[in-house]
Give the backbone structure.
Amino acid sequence: MLGTPDTVLDTRDDIYNRYKSGELSRDAAIDRLRELEPDSVLASIFTADRQFEAGDTAGAADSLFAALSQAPGLVATWMRLGALQETAGADGRPYILLALWQIISSGQVADEVAAAFSQLGDAARSVDSYVALAGQTQASLGNAPWPEPLIPFRLLRGIQLHAHEGLDPDLLRDVLDRYDACAPVFRNALAHWVDNDAMLNDEAVSLLLAILAERGAPTLIDDIFPDQQYPTSEVLRHAQWAVWRLGQRFPEEAFARLQTLAPSADFTARGLLAEQFYFLPDAIPGRREAILHLLDGFTPDEDPDEAGYLLLTVSTVLAMLGSPADSRAVLEKYQRRLPKEAREWIHEAMAGEEAFLPLLSEAGIQDLSLDHICLDGALLDEREDDEFDDEEEYDDDYDKPVVAEPKPGRNDPCWCGSGKKYKKCHLAADEDDARAATSVDAQLFPRVLEDIMSTVMDKLNRADAGAAHNLFFDCDPGMIDLDEDDQTTFMQWTMLDFRAPSTGRTAIEEYLRRRGGRLPEKERSLVDAFRSARYSLWEVQRVDRGRGVEVKDYFAGDTLFVGDVYCSRDAAVGDCILGYLFQNDGRWEFFSDGIRVPRKHLSKLAEMVETGAREAKVSPPDYFRSRSHEWRRVAIRLATEWLDQLELANVEGDPLEFCAADYDVTDPAAVEAALLAAGIFEQDGPGKLVWLETPGAPQGRVFGYITIADGRLRLESNSPKRLAVGRQLIEKHGGDRLRHVADEFDLKE
């Protein structure tokens, strides 16, 4: 088995508890742990403590690394080792990043980890915080080479983070190229998982089993086969594929080892053994006899349901092996030993419309390669089948080329020969026909976009998603509320320009890697157009209502006609739009509405681009595209700065400053009546008056507002000068029924 025997676990716990209680010294605990397990993780950690206290930081680092080689999922130990590396003058970031990736993949934050990041406050308990930290750490490392001993651990984390979506072929190739270095780390990771299932997710366990079987020795069968150590049928299927693969690579050795497992196997395991014996190459003698021996000592009282499954599996496998007589004989001999319910189940299974297939045969493990397992996730549970396989979903009409006929101008003679201007004749009908002809394309865009989202975007690992959010919004996920426009601009940038640190590819490039070879021609053409999309600041040069707009790339200088009916309806010459254009079937289109940039901000924006391009020694268009994640924030900042600098004034030319005066009132009704009688104020509701430049006029300037309620009067105005005049008027007409309390200035509301 992969895990640690219960007796060893109990003894280990006893030694640790006696050490914590003071009954054993640390040195004594180390000695006993080493006697129990020569590669004891706990002994290595205790040894590191002892070495660190003695000032031997290099020795402490070696001991911690030895512990992690046996148990790669120890987050706190990775963090401690990273700190030791920094103390020694080395780069500790790769070690910290391995710790952060472990937190992300496990979805758990241990108390000791939260304490180590106490500076994050309550966020130290949120996995999202570590996603953001991982993105920052990974970005700071860039393409710096990793220490060679850490490469297997980095590859292990890559499998953990991506197993649910299928591994990148480059990642799988790297793992196989470095198999000798990776195998012990992977093997120990699996053993650690059996003892503590938080160390790996089930998908990663499944793929690690397959990888080990692809290159490992037949002795792995002894560790991999026992079915009781697997918590889900998903992991069990992958373990059995691993056994099958070892059987194909080492048939004689595998047959011998599997036979030794049979006597102690329960009914479930014997059913699996029956299929594994059947899967072995035909050249292996003795398979029929081995399958028959699986029914030795058949006593269904222990588990009648599993006993019935074993009996039907053995009978089915014998028939598949070409021994129909044996198949019938075992049923006749052993079926009578089963209880009525189990016998009825066998009869129903055999009488069904579809022939009964045992577990592994039904899963088709014998038809799958390592690529099917690791790249396509062929044996993973509930994996979305979002391939473009449904022929009905793609009408044949979608692939028919549409050739655009030359179209006259609005004021040109109509093509029909009527002598009328085109706009007075067939223009409206032609536009209706054009909309109908392009209705399929209108469906194609959102459908392909949705498939890119479900195939790639929705499956970004947490570290990559956190890095994208941090780069685009300059803050960690969850720190700001995103409106619909924010989400749209972020989505299109992430899809078109963000290169995931884990793969180095954009979402479009990743989508083409996975789907490109299977896309129909028109879908592939559209995705290629997305990949080649141009990002810039587009200045509207001409508007052709109902057809589109002509725009100029503000930095590159070339002009393009964008066939966008909606944009042509609300755009004006001189407008500037920040966004992506793509060309499909010879037609330029906006990827989305983009962001409008007021012309008053262009000079500052252009200056920033020119300065940045000179410093980076690239052209302004290239610089602008390379910083596509920044320009939304820049546009917002320029608008905010402009508003902050804007000085507003009232009609007298005084700077706007909203202010108020408060009074205590002894007779509110009398004060209100006196103010109305003065002819300067008008009633605006119960207890509310308006101070007007010309009372009674249908239109005029408003100088202020008065509210009288709960024994208080409040005058509000938009400048201190007006407030002073208003106070004089109120106090003159309100008399001694008013007592001034206070004035307020620069009211933000």
Confidence is low (pLDDT under 50) at residues 383-406, 435-440. The chain is about 55% helix and 10% strand. The domain at 659-744 is CATH 3.30.310 (TATA-Binding Protein).
